[in-house]
Amino acid sequence: MAKLTQDELLAQFETLTLIELSEFVKAFEEKFDVTAAAAVAVAGPAGPAAVDAVEEQDEFDVILTGAGEKKIQVIKVVRELTSLGLKEAKDLVDGAPKPVLEKVAKEAAEKAAETLKAAGASVEVK
Prior knowledge:
By secondary structure, this protein is α+β, with helices and mostly antiparallel strands. The chain has helices spanning 6-14, 18-32, 36-41, 48-55, 71-81, 86-94, 106-118; strands spanning 60-66, 98-104, 122-125.
């Protein structure tokens, strides 16, 4: 089997839906006994490079700022958008403000925000 380059892999991931990508990440974590959340916790150095990244932002975070009156509907949407189980999704909604999706494309972030807002949640895209 030919080894795929990083660009080829990224091109393949671009064709996946959020749910498919979430399922892939979960399978990857199980297969290699790693957690993707650990990589997110690492912050890069602040400085001129960080300012350039903000100007040319192509990755966005979807932050749940509040569950609203329809908390159960919001939990269901969070579970659809992520690979979280019921307890984890409930804890995320209860602990708002918390990120639901991190480092996703602008279109995916906007779609997720619209879905959460339709369920009654308060959402912020950064």
